[in-house]
Amino acid sequence: MAINWFKYSAPSTFYGLAGRLLPWFAWSSAILFAVGLYISFFVAPMDAQQSEAYRIMFIHVPTSILSMFIYLVMAGYAALGLIFNTRLSSMMASALAPTGALFAFISLWTGAMWGKPMWGAWWVWDARLTSELILFFLYLGFISLHASIDDPRRADRAGALLAIVGSVNVPIIYFSVKWWNTLHQGSTIKFSGTSMHIAMQQAMYSMIAACWLYAIAVTLMRVRSIILERERNAQWVSELAEVRL
Amino acid sequence: MSLSEFFAMKGYGFYIWGSYGLALLIFVVEIALVRHRRTIALQQLRLLRDAGEEE
Amino acid sequence: MSNASGVATGGRTNSLSLIRLLGLVIRRDLVLAMRRRADVLTTLVFFVMVVSLFPLGVGPEPDMLRKMAAGVVWVAALLASMLSLGRMFSADYLDGTLEQMMLAPQSLSVLVLGKILAHWMVSGLPLVLMAPVLGLQFDMPAQALWVLIAALLLGTPVLSMIGAVGAALTLGLRGGGVLVSLLVLPLCIPVLIFGAGAVEAAASGMNAGSQLSLLGALLVLALVFTPWVTAQALRISME
Hints:
heterotrimer; A: mainly alpha; 8 helices; 77% helix; B: mainly alpha; 87% helix; rod-shaped
């Protein structure tokens, strides 16, 4: 993607590119979900300690990983928007936030669903689950701050600062929660066995890739709407086929 | 494995399908919301264009 | 232009040393705060009330209260800090002083640090002084009370500093205190964990040194970064 990188940093050109890329991401995501789910349920064997319940892992782990990854990407885009004053970067950050927050929520829910049969409680104050909860709060903070500021430029920049402060804090928060958890001898969601069965690995990678492609597809679609909303007075927008009807 | 056994998942069915079910629900709702946002955005633009043409 | 050394150079009336500037800002804010003493008291009363609510909610059994004590006092301190954040910049924002500060040639970071310190002296320090009394309500042993004071002394400035970033970002917004709290509370969790951990360790007779040094480290980190970050946040909010 090194060719003519800056051509696509303008909302007008990126809008078209995003629209063309969207179906590719959407379809490959769907295919990988189908493959991943098939392997998860029909190929991967039952776990010795956790029986069938471990299969929740194939949705819990990918959504956890993605929620953390998306936060970093969001903060990265927000920082770019803050430093270089590029509107599109900030729009990408705003577009990523809801998807990241929803992934964090799925991770929390599936974590609880996994915890109940395994450890008997709907919520275990496992270091990772607790950090995930805090990450969810960080997402909500970013979204609320953005929503509370009317001026789009101030909203972008304030959100960016918050996202950057949040990302710097995440390692500190994770470390402190880990320390807190071991002190109180909480349980850790670990996996049984020394290494994962090959089918489990395949399922995991498929699901992670599927979630990642899904996130890109949804974000591209959302950023297109954001571009339409924010650039509504631009000439190129009024000349779009979908507006001309 | 029969279909009913598949759904039961050795007694863990509620948790497994509860997890995947919620994930599916959220994906579907998210996609619907994003599409709706696009619809609204396009509507607004058409209204803007119509208002412009009236002048 | 500010003189980078800490010594006020005699005779140069148009440049202020950083320390003198800090002192001026702190003195000004303290004088203003003293004129509205009620604000100081409401934070303190809130703190006391929240701490008192917990036994009412969970029952008066001494063993349980002793176990909860560190956490309860710390959570209450956190909430009381959050409540008072709105006051940090709003008065100056409303009457235009903040704009003047931003236009001034002196370093905005230093001015901000002064405001944060003054705010802490008015909102955080009273909590530190009140906390041992509340600890006694929960039957905290003596050595734990000392650690409580030390931990709050190290931790409440950090809360004020992190809060300052939130207050600066939400300047003039509707949504008020709740929005700031939503933004700032997750970031304050390490302080809560180490602060309460220190007191609990002391209460069970162990050494609280590692937690206190971690709190100290957080304090240093906050001192180094937050004034500048808050200044940037103020610039973003005021443009």
